[in-house]
Write a structure and sequence with these properties.
Blueprint (H helix, E strand, L loop, with lengths): L2 E5 L5 E6 L2 H4 L5 H14 L60 H17 L3 E4 L9 H11 L6 E5 L4 H7 L5 E5 L5 H6 L2 E5 H11 L2
Parallel strand pairs: 1-3, 3-6, 4-5, 4-6
Antiparallel strand pairs: 1-2
Length: 210
């Protein structure tokens, strides 16, 4: 069973913690991780691009001119894609769905692979208790400085909602707070260090290990 050091907020080792091998020590499959990342990004994609089709363009209720006798080409509506200001042919649709389905077991396993990678690279930092007495960005920055080699690219995992930590981390560049039951593979890969307390690990295992 994998063991990690547990630190206090002063950066001093206080104990060792045994990690569940079913969560923190599994074989990594890069193809599965890539597949889950791509699907999660697709599901979070915001539909911005949209073009008006022929039926969406305003006007064109009557025929521009009669069919014969004018010397001009035949047209039935100014909303035709052939006209300037007409509808767009095969343009991006506002009702297009980019979401994809994925098996829950695959999603969970990819998350465990990300956690395993953090443990093997010694980028999982466990603290006995993560708390602040008041909202102070400077104090949280000082804690990060004692725990990690860098103070950027840090994902802070909380067992429960803590506005003191969340608001203190808000102004720190490349630092994100997330609840243990909302942890995902995309955030794990996006940040170099993962900081979590013992309560957070218990919540994580209780949520995802089934």
């Amino acid at each position: 069973m994998e063991k990690v050091k547990v630190y206090n907020l002063e950066g001093k080792e206080v104990e060792e913690l045994k990690l569940d091998p079913a969560v923190f020590n599994i074989e990594i499959n890069p193809n599965l991780v890539h597949q889950v990342v791509e699907i999660q990004k697709a599901n979070s994609r915001i539909k911005i691009a949209a073009a008006k089709g022929r039926s969406d363009v305003r006007g064109g209720g009557r025929k521009p001119w009669r069919q014969k006798g004018t010397g001009r080409a035949r047209h039935g509506s100014i909303r035709s894609p052939l006209w300037i200001g007409g509808g767009v042919t095969f343009g991006p649709a506002k009702d297009r769905d980019y979401s994809k389905k994925i098996n829950k077991k695959m999603k969970r396993k990819a998350l465990f692979m990300g956690l395993t990678d953090k443990v093997s690279d010694k980028r999982l930092i466990v603290v006995d208790k993560l708390e602040l007495s008041k909202i102070k960005t400077k104090d949280l920055f000082a804690i990060f400085k004692k725990l990690t080699k860098e103070t950027k690219s840090i994902l802070v995992v909380l067992a429960s909602k803590d506005d003191t930590i969340t608001r203190s981390a808000k102004n720190l560049p490349k630092v994100k707070t997330i609840l243990a039951d909302s942890l995902n593979i995309v955030d794990l890969l996006q940040y170099n260090y993962l900081i979590i307390d013992k309560a957070g690990i218990k919540k994580l295992i209780a949520t995802y290990k089934k």
